[in-house]
Write a structure and sequence with these properties.
The chain is an alpha/beta fold. The protein has helices spanning 9-18, 21-34, 67-72, 74-83, 96-104, 120-130, 144-152, 166-172, 176-184, 194-202, 225-234, 248-261, 280-289, 317-323, 342-346, 361-369, 381-386, 390-403, 408-417, and strands spanning 59-63, 88-93, 110-114, 134-138, 157-162, 188-191, 209-210, 239-246, 268-274, 294-296, 308-310, 326-329, 350-353, 374-375. The strands form 2 sheets. Strands 3-2-1-4-5-6-7 form a 7-stranded parallel β-sheet, with helices on both faces. 46% of the residues are buried.
Amino acid sequence: MTQSDPIGLLTRVCLLATRAIPLLALPVLWRRLARGKEDPDRWREKLGVPGLPRPEGRLIWLHAVGLGEVMALRGLIAALADLAPDVEFLVTSSSRGSARVFGAALPDRCRHQFLPLDAPGYLARFLDHWRPDLSVWSEQDLWPGAVIATARRGIPLALVNARMNTDALKRRQRWRGLYVDLFARFGLIVAQDPESAAHMAALGATGVRLTGAFKAAAPPLTADPVALEQVRAALAGRLPLLLASSHAEDEAVALQALRQIAGDPRQALLLIAPRGQLRGAEIAEKAESLGLTTARRSAGQGPGGADVWIVDTLGEMGLWYRLCPVSLIGGTFGPTEGHNPWEPAALGSAILHGPRVANFAADYATLDAAGAARLVNADTLAAAFLSDLAPVAAKAQNLSCAAKGSLAPLAAELLALGGLA
């Protein structure tokens, strides 16, 4: 792409607006630093200042916004690495949590940086330093300045694992002219499901293909072996039941179910891993108002004899899925519309979910149809917690294993797009 590439009026206005970002960037970042939302050692990466040297040789840059999206890229990175042993990888994201968790389990030949804010100067500094041979964007959040600046340098772009539900389409329709211009810069666009492909086509994307969701093909989450044995010992004699990536609506249903089974001789223990790690005190107060006793991992407390153990620490989901035979997936009882079911599937934890799964509709439909997950509601959850779900867990783990290696064809196509094959 060159500076003379045609772009529409709406895109020109958006790019002009990005020039004002530096006027606000420092005050906003300093405020976020004060609130603990930015890494004090790395926040300058958001100004395009590199935190690491560029490796020698060929480099693929992959971007995803948050923790779940970044972790889902691990399967694709593994497929690319297998096919191109000399290629190095740069992964960017936006949230501090994604950097901490992904950084603790970096794939080989991979490093992480924060994506700069979408201002011309910051992006130029970033691209001058990293000089990627290929830019791969994941899911649905596209930064206009970054996409256009990358394309104008002649760097091939691909959009992978794309998803866009009906609500997301409605929010973007008024910006259709912008999306037409952005999608035109991508040499390859692949979506998770037919609905997403159709919605992207409605915004001007052409030639959209399907690959399925990356999350099914991602390697299992890791766990610290020392912590694993310590927690396993602490859970001895208990029936650990996990509420994963929870929100308030999920917690209300799970806590009521726990009250119904509190007298079970297997000594049920509900582990709550909240989506927001700062909600531990709020969850404890809610549980205690129902007559349940609580402990909080972030406060250094083990489960002891508590009814509810709030595991409000970051980057330990690999522990909980390994140790809990049953996982109720959060976001499925409220407007969040579900979270990733494949992480527990890969580690043999049986999947329960509520009725609201629009964000992962195809995934839950696949799992439910195969008997690899079970739909529950407020009236049936207690009985489901105590039922034999080992067959459900086994079927889900088999589906997860079957998905491994499914990204090799896409990896080969990406390498060809970037001239890296």
